[in-house]
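To: structure subgroup
Subject: Chain for Friday's discussion

All,

I'm putting the inputs and outputs inline so they're searchable in the archive.
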Amino acid sequence: MSIPPKAFSILGLPVHLMTNYSGWLLERLQQKIGTHVVTLNAEMAMQAERNTSLAQVIQDAELVIPDGAGVVLYVRWLLLQKVQRTPGIELAEKLLQELGHREPNAKVFFYGGKPGVAAKAAEYWLSQIPSLVVAGTYSGFHSQQEEEQLRQTLTQLQPQIILVGLGVPRQELWIAQNRHLCPHAIWIGVGGSFDIWSGIKRRAPAWLGNNNLEWLYRLYQEPWRWRRMLALPEFALKALVYHVF
């Protein structure tokens, strides 16, 4: 049985710290233990402050990784713990890369994004790992009838890894509502990762990410995100107040 990672509290939300997330997930995959992975950042934490359903989903998730710079700095400065930022996209990439070595027959399903984006993301990974087993792809824009078809497809295919790119909080809530369809699968909310893998968008240069400034590059690419970025100073203020009192 896999050992649960050590959990710490950030504004009442868990974050799990360990050195090898992908190895832990593959161990659970081999043991057929269903897992919901949440990639926590400051924006999600602030949404959870106002959305009790999202907060409950995060608290119930088996693995919550430190994705955002704000979360990492909180853990380092206020909790005094050693931690490396683990972007959800990098965890998903490492997991896919290791599948061929440890679980070559594991099936992966890509769900989310605009029409055709999930399929292009899957094509990218097939070009990188020809042995990868893609169970299927599905757009994040569809009718209620197509949603039911998606549920039936997942039930029939039983993929072992399901990557959901619907954005926060939609992807987290959707996973919580539907993970019973594939109870042994690893479900990961990957946000806009499909856009990166399909070539629609580019990630920030590594030096920005290494200095916890990837958010600045995203703001440069998408200026309309400035309102969402207000969550960063709000998170910092709440973090200080929460920690002190």
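Points worth raising on Friday:
Residues 6-244 form one domain.
The first helix runs from residue 21 to 30.

D.
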